[in-house]
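Q&A log
Question type: sequence-to-structure
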Amino acid sequence: MNKPSASGERIVAYYRVSTQRQGRSGLGLEAQREAVHRYMQGHPTELLGEFEEVETGKGSNALDKRPKLRAAVALAKKARATLLIAKLDRLARNVHFVSGLMETGVQFRCCDFPTADRTMIHIYAAMAEHEGRRISERIRDALAAKKARGEAVGNPASLQPVNGARASQAGEFAAKLRPTLEGYRAAGMTQRDMVAALDGAGVRTARGGTWSLMQVQRVLARL
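Response status: OK
Response body:
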């Protein structure tokens, strides 16, 4: 943990992964921790505590199912500090959860989009939730049409031709980045700024590398 600074923003860091396997391996948690520490290097901060959690957080009582988050919120409120989350998608999975966090009255910030205010984050959560429903509806309709034609219905991936699998994966990757990129657009960021922001937040490309201007342009085109 970094030593407290004499001045600057007081923060409480919260990290979360959604599977036990990721929690055991450290995948995801380590990247989030690096993003928070990178944020601290660029801003005068005082780190009061770090909390990490392995929890799906699904359902209407998502906030109740995260004891480490409750503890982080309590410390942040008591110390009048900011709750710092490494990545927006660790927070904005569903509207109800974001609303629940807002109702606690805690101030929070995301490393990958630090300029987003509470209203913007709420909008991104709604967008992500809507996109998830649309994807589910498209899969359900495609399976129903296939079944109506008398074709075997199995893995939804079989609906795509083999030579289209790569394009499908690229589309899914772009959909996951939609809330973040839409936020960058709303903030008036240039595409080169987006490259720097994604790399700075520790976000990797679909193949696990760093970003280039062309790669950002390709993802934006898919949106």
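Response note: The first helix runs from residue 20 to 25.
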